[in-house]
Amino acid sequence: MLNTFQQAQHDMLPVATPDEASRQEFTKSLKQFIQSSILPGLGPVYRARAAKKFEVETGRAPADRHDIRKAMVPDPYFQHYAAVNRISQELLWDSVIDSIDAQLPELKTKAEANSAKNAGKLVIPEDFKVPRYVSALDIHCMPGGYAGRPGGDSVGLGVLYDRGVFLYAMGYTGPDNDDMGRSVCNYVKRRLDGFSPKRILDLGCTVGHSTLPYKELFPDAEVWAMDVAEAQVRYGHARAGAMGYDVNFVQGNAEAIDFPDDHFDLVVSHILLHETSGKAMPKIFKECHRVLTKGGFMIHADLPPFDLMDPFTQFILDNETYYNNEPFWGAMREMDQIQLAKDAGFPAETIRFDTAPMAVMEFAQAADGYSQEAAEAVNDREFTAGEFAPGGGWEVLIAQKL
Ligand SMILES: C[S@@+](CC[C@H](N)C(=O)[O-])C[C@H]1O[C@@H](n2cnc3c(N)ncnc32)[C@H](O)[C@@H]1O
């Protein structure tokens, strides 16, 4: 079950020494162990003792995820789970930092050379202000967060995300960490028959993991990847060059997109929205509508809303809000995104939530894909990261400008 996929090496990733690789594999396996062997114990603990204790103390059964949290937090099994989960998260970033530090001068030289190979533009505006919801904390415990600390090194931060997030996802986002992009691309190919966008914008691209599959699917399209974090955009441009893609990268804010009206045929995002805020989301939806051409589509792949799941699952997923520096994780799931899309100008009949099946799963199932063992490992997956739709794919919100 462990190590379903290994990350594909490219020129911008440091080569880990055997010791570093072993520490990184350990953190990945530890996370998998927590998900497959400790997490499933929370349900029985809740039913057998925490809920009963809550009832004795309050005279009523837990009614929602907040009550369940009150019941579970004092329980030693839950405390053990939450602590070891947090430790695994911090360990994983630490396990990558050593190999970056050792190879930083070489990686900086490579970044310049690989950026030069990418014929797409790299646009870094002067005096750009990173929104506070990104700059104020180390999101998901990544040292420096997405945007880094003032004076920090940009190449190092990009590598840290690229390698670290692969371990974070335990390899399940595929060898190039691009499963969300691939899955949405498959969705577009199958569900939007004949749609052939000339200009595509990926908002909150980080290092462009999900962006590159769009260039693969639509090689003639002008593809733009946008993020508020300069370090991620710079690294993403170099990574795309190293992987043989011509894709444009721009530091920019999805709340105020610096492109003209009616410019893009497709605007997408992958796990961007839950990293923003309640004030930012309506602005982002309006901007998507503004920059889209008539007939163009907006697709956001992100966390499924809480109302699609039972209160105990909501409580489990909300642990990210409490213990993984993801302040908007829970609140975002309560936003009425359909209404936000309507308010932004998208006609009601074009707006829907849907499921984009995971490309890795489909690939694993294909006769000429990964080994049978890998296919079984993916399909047996017990982990519910929260990003996944109840149907076993990625949750997408889709709307069309008419
Ligand atoms: C979880 S990451 C996205 C991962 C990426 N889309 C992928 O699929 O690999 C969230 C990204 O959104 C960026 N971000 C947050 N708020 C933003 C905004 N208002 N405009 C553009 N990017 C933003 C963060 O800097 C971060 O890089």
From TrEMBL:
Cited CDD domains: AdoMet_MTases
Alphabetically ordered keywords of this record: Methyltransferase, Transferase
Alphabetical list of Gene3D superfamilies matching this protein: Vaccinia Virus protein VP39
Keyword Methyltransferase: yes
A Pfam family reported for this protein in Swiss-Prot or TrEMBL: Methyltransf_25
Domain Methyltransferase stretches: 200-296
Gene Ontology terms, MF aspect: methyltransferase activity
GO biological process: methylation
Name assigned to this protein: Class I SAM-dependent methyltransferase
